[in-house]
Amino acid sequence: MRILLVEDEKRLSHYIKKGLVEEGFAVDQAYDGEEGLYFAKEETYDIIILDVMLPKLSGVEVCKRFRGFKKTTPILMLTARSETEDKILGLESGADDYLTKPFVFAELKARINALLRRSYRQVSNILTIRDLEIDPTKHSVKRDKKDIKLTPKEFAILELLMRRKYEVVTRTQVIEHVWDYNFDSLSNVVDVFIGTLRKKIDRGHKTKLIHTLHGVGYMISDKTPKV
Ligand code: CA
């Protein structure tokens, strides 16, 4: 999953990004409101983390303008003050949740997971299809009750496919949701990752779950997809 982090405090931004990358997220950073709004509009994100107090454009203003473009990406606001007014203003401007600074990373992670679950309309944190089960909060993968070890990027791709099971996910969408802005999208790295994922997930199992639809994209399904 890919996150836009709009935060002008460099040290805090670095700390949040580091934690999120360790969790397998792809993270783009913006350091003021204008830059944040630009990235939010031009790129594709699963979540936007938006500080309220920002140079050039406030977080509330970024949020309002972004929603003005009919964009529905979930927004988590960071507010330095615990004043109710700030929170109300944030929520009224179109934010989905807020977190008061200072916060512990575990809480940020929990809020992000809750927003992702809501945005992909899931009831539980655990995503399943047949005998495959993944838990994005713990980064665990099991097939037929056996643990499978995945690298963070492999996990991120599998998570995206699982959140959208039975839907075609294009190569571009995989790139947009799993890699950050600096990724060279001309490489065939997605196909390579899908290849290793298929080995780890499907090898030795009668029902194949990961499918490549040539020229279209990928799909996780327990039935052979028709194109
Ligand atoms: Ca700030």
TrEMBL record:
Entries under SMART domains matching the protein: REC (SM00448), Trans_reg_C (SM00862)
Phosphoprotein keyword on record: yes
Keywords associated with the record: DNA-binding, Phosphoprotein, Transcription, Transcription regulation, Two-component regulatory system
All copies of domain Response regulatory, residue ranges: 2-116
Any GO MF annotation of the entry: transcription cis-regulatory region binding
Record Pfam families: Response_reg, Trans_reg_C
Residue span(s) of domain OmpR/PhoB-type: 124-222
Domain of life where this protein originates: Bacteria
GO cellular component, one term: cytosol
Sites bearing 4-aspartylphosphate, chain numbering: D51
InterPro entries hit by this protein: CheY-like_superfamily (IPR011006), OmpR/PhoB-type_DNA-bd (IPR001867), Sig_transdc_resp-reg_C-effctor (IPR016032), Sig_transdc_resp-reg_receiver (IPR001789), WalR-like (IPR039420), WH-like_DNA-bd_sf (IPR036388)
Keyword Transcription: yes
Protein's GO biological process: regulation of DNA-templated transcription
CDD domains: REC_OmpR_CusR-like, trans_reg_C
Ranges of the DNA-binding region feature: 124-222
Full protein name: DNA-binding response regulator
